[in-house]
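Exercise 3.2. Students should predict the tertiary structure of the chain below and write it as structure tokens, then compare their answer with the key that follows.

Predict this chain's 3D structure.
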Amino acid sequence: MKIGLAGIGKLGTAMMTHWHKSNFSIGIFHPDRSKAKHFAEKFPNAHPLTDKEMRQLDIILLALPAGKVISFIDSLIKENSSIAFINMATALPTKVIKDRLPSCKVFGLKYMGHSRDLMENGKGLFITEDQLPAPIQDLFRPVGEIIIDREETVLEVNKQATYFAVKTAVEIETEFAGKGYHPAYVKRGLTSLAPEVIRSYSEGTLGHFANEIVKEIQESKKAAD
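Answer key:
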């Protein structure tokens, strides 16, 4: 199967970071061929694609902004309607593409999380409503796990997590400033202490001090209920 990646932003870079370790051959497309060439040079398993080569692919992963996906697909299926497209745009429901381009073969696969975390740690979480082609399932095994669920769940979870993360950051900043702490302490709390405590909490590796705080919070919530 000839597989290509359209989109060399944060998500595309994060995925390629792990694919090159597994030696999957991936074609890279960008309207500016020099950018595609420069990007492909970073990964031994990548090669830039010409417009003609793009139209001869079997599967194209679309790590593009939502507003560019439909026009991009439309420009290709006029010449090759057998290409299978993988829509990865969180804000664009795959059903919208299917309704707009009924002759298009398209599958949804949405990443839940932050692209930086995917790049640095791998073990990503991807959501789909479709039965994906076997080559795509194989391709994503080195990158993370695929779960069958509603696409809307990705947007809902990302929004909720972002809301509470920002709320916590603002509260830390406000509280520290109110106590007159040095700005360096505020930055340390936001960039090191809070993120690592959250990570440890999720992994079940909190230390004694943090676990005591968890108990206090849980008891406080029980009393409030």
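Discussion points: The beta strands are 3-6, 26-29, 46-48, 59-62, 84-87, 105-108, 110-112, 124-128, 144-148. The chain has two domains: 3-149, 155-224.
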